[in-house]
Amino acid sequence: MEKLFTGMANRVAHLAGLPLTFAFCCLIILVWATSGPVFGFSDTWQLVINTGTTIITFLMVFLIQNTQNRDGAAIQAKLDELIRVGKGHNHFIGIEHLTETEVEEIRDKCERAAKRHDREIADMAAKKAVGQKRGAKKQAA
């Protein structure tokens, strides 16, 4: 059942994103709008489009959410594997399960560490530039 739903959700999500699907939906709206005078712009005529769009929107929300959940989980698994085999810190694996506050604390620590690292690199580059200037002055003299 899960594989069937996943396959269907993938197909529907793919089809929903095609330009042809958008054009088809625009055509439906155009046909509905032009049929207004035939039906006297009645309440039933309006109800047809309202009901149709509401049902489609309701179902699409769940299909799109399902697709995004799977995509997010797959990306997270790939990132976890890269962290595991790379030089990253393994304690980052699984942080998507923490609370928003806990994740923010980790982000703040990472940003502070990155700023420290940037400052260290800038300091080393400045020292190197000063050393090269001094060496050039000595050679000129």
What would you note in describing this structure?
This protein has 141 residues and is an all-alpha fold. The chain is built from 4 helices and no strands. 82% of the residues lie in helices and 0% in strands. α1 crosses α3 (43-85). The relative contact order is 0.05.
Radius of gyration: 29 Å
Distance between the termini: 83 Å
Number of DSSP strands? Answer: 0
Overall body shape: elongated
Strand content: under 5%
Q: Structural class per helix/strand content?
A: mainly alpha
Major sheet: none
Mean model confidence by pLDDT: 89
Work out the helix count. Answer: 4
The succession of helices and strands, N to C, reads HHHH
* Unreliably modeled segments: none
- How helical, in percent, are the residues? over 70%
Question: What can be said about this structure in brief?
Answer:
The chain has 141 residues and is mostly helical. Helix content is 82%, strand content 0%.
Question: What are the salient characteristics of this protein?
Answer:
mainly alpha, single chain
Topology:
Elements: H1 2-16, H2 19-34, H3 43-85, H4 100-140
Helix pairs in contact: 1-3
